Amino acid sequence: MNKKTNPNTSANTRRLLPMLLGVVVILLIGALVFVTTKGKASETSELDQLPNYTDVKGTIVVDGLKYEKQPHLGSEDAKVKVIEFADFKCPACKKWTAAYLDTFIKDYVDTGKVQFYFMNFAFLDRDSYLAASAGEAIYHQSNEKFWEYVHKLYENQGDEGKIWATQKFILGFVKDNIKGIDYNKFEQDLKNHTYMYDVKEDFKIAGSYGVNGTPKFMVNGKLLPDSSYEGLTAAIEAATSDSK
């Protein structure tokens, strides 16, 4: 026996269907807005944690290169002092490190010809400053671990045009990759911008000597006109001959 369809029920269903669809659409839009807003709020919070040079307190006096404050490799008795000026966000710095640093250390540092120094020239963006201050925090715990940080951070370098070296990224990166330091102290130093003065001081000193990009190299106090490996090694050989 066939059941008869109640025309009133069918009409009610047809009326409710658009309303239900409308509710679903509103819920989906609300969820999208919530996720987007949450993402933007998180991004804003990350940006708020990035340092500015204008926030750094203290008077900076440019008075020499201050070798004694820089991360270094090699013997203090070396006749030639080489400084690399670098920005951890700089793709060219990453390429130079990957292509030449180990060879340079083997041929010039380990042989006693050169004492090699790293000086920050953090200029690309605010996360450049933060990455540099993280390096300083590690260096003040361990000169050896600083060079480990250099190699590994360049290997994990993000897009130059994007803010990637955020506090969250650096804390996670160091925790996963740099062992043998006091991580809690490092975390506090990073969050408190403990070594931002040192980063700004490096920047001011480098600028006063004519540094305007990265990587740049200085041999015995003389800034080289280009960043080629050939130019660097030629300048070192010339300085070695002059010191004999």
UniProtKB/TrEMBL annotation:
Belongs to the thioredoxin family. DsbA subfamily. This is Disulfide bond formation protein DsbB. InterPro entries: Thioredoxin-like_fold, Thioredoxin-like_sf, Thioredoxin_domain. It holds the Pfam family Thioredoxin_4. The keyword Metal-binding does not apply. The chain crosses the membrane at residues 16-35. Residues 44-241 form the Thioredoxin domain.
